[in-house]
Amino acid sequence: MKRDQFTVNILYTAVLAVCLTVWSLLDILAPALVIALPGPMVVIASVLAALTLSCLLCRAQKFHCIECLAFAALTSFLLPLTAGFPGKHTLFLACTGLIAYTVFSALFDDMKRRLDGPVSVITAGFVCYLACQCFMDLF
Questions:
Q1: Where are the alpha helices (DSSP H) in the chain?
Q2: What is the mean pLDDT of residues 13-36?
Q3: pLDDT band with cut points at 50, 70 and 90 for residue 114
Q4: What is the mean pLDDT of residues 96-123?
């Protein structure tokens, strides 16, 4: 159990790094393309993809510990900073990443326990993502 503690964070780092690398490559290779900075939905989708993948790959059970939250906040702050985002946007993504990781790890864990069956993990991730899409008009 102890060795699977940071699997979610490692997968979150990998998914967010891939998203930001694609954004950076598009920004470099196609400068005439007008691309908006990745917003909170990229961070939230990365958190949910990491939670889903960790459940499917290693059956991790515990997502919310103090070390995991600190690692998620550090990842959400440092990766956009290294991708060349402005400072205020990086701080906004770090706060969004920490809040999304905290809230969705608890919600995802609870939904996964309540839904039984082989597709409960994918269903929980999809429902959390749809709920987040509904509330994005508030921001």
A1: 7-29, 40-58, 66-82, 87-114, 120-135
A2: 81
A3: confident
A4: 79
